[in-house]
Amino acid sequence: QGSEKAKTFVHAFLKRSMPKMKDEAIQDMLTRKAVVLEHYPKKKTKQKRKKTKGFTAKQRRELRLFEIEPEQQRYAIFLPLHELWKQYIRDLCHGLKPDAQPHMIQGKLLKADLHGAIVTVTKSKCPSYVGITGIVLQEFKHVFKIITKEDKLKVVPKRNNVFSLELDGFISYIYGSKFLLRASERSAKKFKLKGTIDL
Predict the structure, then answer these.
(1) pLDDT tens sequence across 153-191
(2) What total number of domains does the chain contain?
(3) Which of 16, 45, 58, 176 is most buried by a 10 A CB count?
(4) Residue 67 is assigned to a structural domain of this protein
């Protein structure tokens, strides 16, 4: 294109690109050869994401989502789960070596997932709970559901009970009254290892 045509094209292009500027200002910019094109993007409307609603607590109870069928309430079925739990704890505590510091292991066990652990009720304000031993099938905020060697499903409250669990010679005690949390909440909880503890 000729110089005049090119000049006309550039002037028209700048006028269209920068509609707010006057002709004199555009000419001045061309003379100094410093041009910054303005851009007016279209505002995008944000689409609100729909939150997927889960079941309410009432619906879960009605659907019996957490119920264990009677034919599944057998100790032998859950022994592989216990083996997996033992391996999980060994990995978590780096092998449970004899020279490991007990309070460090205790701190990790307090935050660990107990599904699959074999626990025993060692102390209780209700004598009928003492001696119950079995694999933890479910942990809720206030109770443990435990399957015993006699294939009986026991619901043991945490409050007013002391539980013990043993692994590779290391015995840990859990004071249920200080343990009234869901498994998911315990991982972020800071437990005090010192102080007076009552049932």
Answers:
(1) 999 999 999 999 988 888 888 888 888 888 777 777 666
(2) 2
(3) 176
(4) no
Q: Which among 117, 113, 111 is positioned nearest to 170, based on CA atoms? A: 117
* 66 found inside a domain: no
pTM for the complete prediction? 0.64
What secondary structure does DSSP assign to 89-130, as a single string? HHHHTTT--TTS-HHHHHHHHHHS--TT-EEEEEEESSGGGT
Which two three-digit tokens encode residue 47? 């689409």
117 inside domain? yes
d(CA 168, CA 109): 13
**75: amino acid identity, one letter:** Y
Tokens representing 94 are: 């780096």
Range of the domain at 99: 73-188
Q: Is residue 113 part of a domain?
A: yes
